[in-house]
Every structure is written in C-alpha cells, then in structure tokens.
Amino acid sequence: MTFDWREGAARVAAASKGTPDRVPIIAQLHDHAMLLAGVSANRFFRDAETLVKTELAVSRYYGLDVPFLLFDAYNIEAEAMGQEIRYREGQLPELNYTNPLIQEPEDFGRLEPPEAGVSGRMPFVLDCMEVFRAETGFLPSAVFCAPFSLAVALRGYRNLVKDIRRRPDLAHRLFCFITDEVLAPWIGTMIKRFPDLTSVAGTDAWASPPNTTLEMMREFVLSYTVRLRERFGQVWTRGYWGESVCGNPEEMLRLKMELGGRSLLVFDPDVAKLGPMFFTDFAVREDVPLTIGMDARLLRDGPVDLIVERVRHYVSVAAPRGKFTFYLANVPADTPPEHIHAAVAAVRTFGQYPIGDLAEVEFTLPQFESFEDFLAREDGGGAWR
Predict the structure, then answer these.
(1) Half-sphere exposure of residue 316: CA atoms within 13 angstroms, side-chain side
(2) How far apart are the C-alpha atoms of 10 and 42, rounded to whole Å?
(3) Residue 218 sits in a domain of what CATH number?
(4) Rounded mean pLDDT of 257-276?
(5) Do both 102 and 229 map to the same domain?
(6) Around Cβ 189, how many Cβ atoms within 10 Å?
(7) Is the pLDDT of residue 1 over 60?
(8) Would the pLDDT of 84 be above 70?
(9) Which domain holds residue 120?
C-alpha cells in the first residue's frame, strides 16, 4: 500500500532551513526492520521489492517523518569484486575482513574492477532505487561505499594503516584504483539510470577516529571525496564520528562539513561525552542544520525512562533555534519496539515549536499495537513478505 510521505518530507526540508512545526525524527533501521517483519536475510538483501516495502512499512509503524532506502552499503562494491561475504540469518551480511582480496602487494596486479551496474548485487541496488521511487514518489540518494571504507574491505584495516604509514605510495595506488576504476563508473551508472538524482552519498564510518587521525583523513579521505565531487558534482561522504577522541573536535567538525556539505551530522557517544551544547554552538556559528544521532545501545537496552530523558535533554539544548533533526542511528536488530515508540513519542512531545522549558513537560508512553496488527490494519497483512 502506497503512503503519502509529503508532510514528513516537507517537515524535514523545513528543519534544514529554519523552524518547522516540530522537530522531525528519522531512523536507520534496516536490520531491525528485517527482524521485526520476519523476513529472511537472504531474501531481504537480494529482493528489492521485499527490502523496500519492509522498510517503508516499519517506518510507518513507528511514525517516522521520512523513510530511507537502507541496505548493507559497505558490502556492494567489494562483493562485486569477489570479496568473500557471509550471509547470516537475522543479521546484516558481513564481509570477511580477515581474508581480504589484497593480502600482499603483488595482489594489486590481480585486482579487477567490477562491471558497473552488472556485477554482484549492483543490479539489486538499482532495483531498490526504482522500487523506492515507485512506492514513495521520491528518488532516494544514490549510496556507495566511500574510498577509505572500501579500501578497508579490500585490504583489511591493519594492512591498510601499515601501508599508509610505511608505503603511502602503495596506499595511494589503491585509493586511485578504487576512486577512478571502481566508484566513478558505478556512480556514473547510477546517475545515467536516474538522471534526476540530486544526492550521491558515500558511507564511510571506517574512516572515523580513532581508526584514523585528522591528518590521515585529509590525505586519504577528503582528497578522494573531492576527486569524485570534481567529476560528478554533488558527491558527499558521511557517517563520520569520533570528535570526543580526535584531539581537536572543532577541526573534526570542519572536516566533516568539507566531506558532507553544509550540514552537521553527529552521533553518540560523542554528543554524550562533549555535550549537545558544543555541537549546537558550532552549528549556530556556522549557520548550518544539525542532526544528532542518539546512542544505539541506549535505544536497545533502555530503560524507557533513560531514553526519554536523553531525548528531552538533546531537544531542550539543540532544538530551540530550529535547524534540528533527531536521528535514531543504526537501530540494533533486536531493539524492543517499545523503546523505538518511546523515542519517537518523546521527540513529538518535546519537539513542538516554539520550544520552551522542557523540565516540567510530562511524558506518557502512548499505547501502541503490535507490528502484525498494524500490518493487518494498514497493509493487508504484509503480503509482500
């Protein structure tokens, strides 16, 4: 069953520029959606219609403002090149990082780029984008694995860092190959298939401190993002965290804006450690929208009272000026639905503009139905499963 997402999309757009009617709430919940809907991992990550309709139904169930097209984005290009991947029931597919394709320098000569849009599950990604647009009316971002994280997939983290420190010429050779021969043709294929694309986004959590230093990020992360951007235009890389451990958090934030555009996406535990005011003050000075991703472990483990108070605290500090979005980042698969409903309800309760003193605002967890009852009422029992 199609659903009109325009109201939520307008709210998210308004929050990127100023003050909407309330703080929007979004979430990253693909493996949770798979488990909640009882869909097998093998089908979920191979059948575009199943993945998209599952994610849309679960997004509606929780009352999120907009859905996202989410899949195992760190795996697609590496798997298409022959990197071993493990499919496990109830979990995201996982690359075998202990057995990388490039184990010795001579392995570089045997590395072959995938056939863009054809190899591995690349056609699955294109199909997901098509189904998502058909179901929502919106074309999602084109998502790819950013150069640093793809280098980790192909070389292994320890080997890659050794190369960067001891044989930087070898490391740059790999990054040039990844950027020019793997990612550029793949991005070009997505743009050709969807010429009205407005966003091309690379996922790159492997490049975050303490896995990297800020110097490494500038030489091996920013430079290759810029290389893609100069070729295609609106190409960004995101998912970085680590301000609380990098030694210079403000420099890290500026670097993130160079990588990800004029907006700021930050996550716990950095926000919990440095405080939401640090990030809010920076966003105000730079006049950029701020999105805060709440602790996934807290969301999973609870209790509800702590989840609600974390939401209250972050909204009270970061939301009053507008330009703020609340993000449930990387929701664990086994998170109790009650916890997610509580977080969403808390954002709706505390995030109504204008936002005043939230200390005395009462919160009551609303009654909610099971996902199966929701499907029976709203989506014909989930016949797409």
Answers:
(1) 14
(2) 35
(3) 3.20.20.210
(4) 95
(5) yes
(6) 18
(7) no
(8) yes
(9) 71-261
